[in-house]
Design goal:
This protein has about 375 residues and is mainly alpha-helical. The chain has one domain. Helix content is about 65%, strand content about 0%. It contains 13 helices and two strands. Strands 1-2 form a two-stranded antiparallel ribbon. The protein starts with a helix and ends with a helix.
Length: about 375
């Protein structure tokens, strides 16, 4: 065969092979993906068992988280301050001296924050605690009152005068309770608060010990009045924030817009201040937690400051405060915090809470007036 014929025959065979490959290529592609699908089915057991197992685990985890979230959202019950004081004094083998009820109550409140169902939730970084907002706000409200009372103990109540030394255990307890409420890493909030609780326990042990006379609790009118002054501003702020659930005019804007040269001019007012609907339940539960802690603290004050309250005729004011704070702890039957208008069809839980706190604050103002009299 001539060289040219050989070349042409080779070229023809190459073209034939190319056309055959083009014809078979779609089938090869389909076969390739078919083989991959079979390999995947072999890996997963033929029907996606691994995927179904993972999906089932996620669903079970979410259900457990929802149930735990409902349980952890339950607020701690109130307790009898007098009964707790007697029980703790018997366990310690001590007499419930002046200051015993207040200190023991503070310890019980702080331990409740850490040991209630779900523990301390404000610093959780995983579900269900991560999803919850009502209980963390409740915890913060109670924590603020613990912080204020621990500061009053350290600054005033445990000292005879301004030049006397601070109690060594209270100098530890007060800053420990002021530790960042949202810290979860090293150090954790729980560990820091435990240190504060242990310091309060040491102070209580020294206060009630007949052999140790370095711990003091001065149940005087001026000491109580100083704490009440701080509390009055706390409750005033909470009442105002709760009332803003329906929107209220800004007093500062209204005053700023007054014309001092024309007393007959119309008030121009200002923009309404209203709590965002996403924060209404947060404010409500912060106030509820604050009132829960205050209820027990005032019951302890009724015990430890009884003599000065009777001398100043302020016992009725304390009773009135306790009655109003007990009203804040009534059961919330609605599954959500309602925000109806003031005179609308639906309830407004924020305004109801604000009413209780405002009346308690009015009684505190009367109590301060009585305590400041000679």
């Amino acid at each position: 065969m001539a060289p040219w014929d050989t070349i042409w025959a080779g070229h023809s065979q190459l073209m034939t092979n190319q056309r055959e490959n083009d014809r078979l290529m779609p089938g090869k592609i389909r076969q390739y993906f078919r083989d991959k699908k079979e390999d995947l089915q072999d890996y997963t057991g033929g029907s996606g068992v691994v995927f179904k197992l993972l999906l089932a685990l996620v669903v079970v985890y979410l259900l457990i988280a929802i149930v735990l979230g409902m349980i952890w959202s339950s607020e701690p019950d109130t307790f009898s301050v007098r009964e707790h004081t007697r029980t703790l004094a018997d366990e310690m083998g001590r007499e419930p001296v002046t200051g015993f009820a207040t200190t023991a109550t503070m310890i019980r409140l702080a331990e409740t924050l850490l040991d209630k169902p779900g523990g301390y939730i404000s610093n959780d970084i995983a579900p269900p605690g991560l999803w919850m907002d009502n209980m963390p706000n409740w915890e913060f409200g109670a924590l603020v009152q613990l912080r204020d009372m621990s500061r009053a103990l350290r600054k005033d109540i445990s000292r005879s005068q301004s030049q006397s030394a601070e109690d060594p255990d209270l100098t530890i307890a007060e800053p420990q309770l002021h530790f960042d409420s949202g810290s979860w890493a090293i150090p954790s909030t729980e560990n820091e608060y435990r240190r504060g609780i242990n310091a309060l326990k040491r102070y209580l042990d020294r206060l009630s010990s007949p052999e140790q006379v370095d711990a003091q609790f001065f149940a005087r009118a001026d000491n109580l009045n100083n704490w009440l002054a701080d509390l009055e501003t706390r409750l005033g702020s909470l009442s105002r924030t709760l009332s803003e659930s329906v929107g209220k005019a800004s007093v500062s804007d209204a005053v700023a817009n007054l014309d001092p040269d024309d007393p007959l001019s119309e008030d121009t007012g200002g923009e309404d201040v209203k709590t965002a609907w996403t924060e209404i339940d947060d404010v409500f539960y912060e106030a509820r937690g604050s009132a829960w802690a205050l209820l027990h603290i005032f019951k302890a004050i009724e015990v430890d400051f009884r003599k000065v309250l009777q001398d100043k005729n302020a016992m009725a004011s304390v009773k009135q405060i306790i009655i109003e704070l007990e009203g804040t702890q009534k059961t919330v039957w609605s599954p959500v915090i309602l925000n109806g208008s003031g005179f609308g069809v639906l309830a407004n839980h924020s305004l109801t809470m604000a009413a209780y706190l405002s009346r308690a604050n009015a009684a505190i103002s009367d109590m301060r007036d009585l305590l400041s009299r000679g």
